[in-house]
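quick one, 144 residues, struct below
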Amino acid sequence: MISFQFIDLKKPSFLRMNQLKSFLKVLVRDEGKHLGDLSVVICTDEYLLKVNQDFLQHDYYTDIITFDYCDDGIVNGDLLISLDRVSENSELEKTTFKDELHRVIFHGVLHLCGYKDKTKKDIELMRFKESFYLNLFVPRETNE
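---
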């Protein structure tokens, strides 16, 4: 099951929940995994900073924190995403806010599928996968 929660903000009007949920199921399947429970929490910088401090002892802003509860090929986890960071990153990367939010969501799910982003090689593969799934999703998403 996939759930979305919005903390201290409204759902972005462009976010098509049913299409996104369907696509995330495809992404997980295409990565050779099975979907369990996935929670996507979209929040403010302040909320995510507090989580970062309380749970990870990190005192900085970030666009996403992924809590991985995967077991035996079943994808379970929580994605906490700061819309403030996504907005800033979209400007820095010269991409749309919509594409950047989808990219960050895919990034988190890819982490749950086993992809890392600590080494240069890992980062290159992660970026490739993000772009691959973003390019698959955008044409589907714009058809409705």
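The helical segments are 17-30, 45-56, 83-92, 97-112, 120-142.
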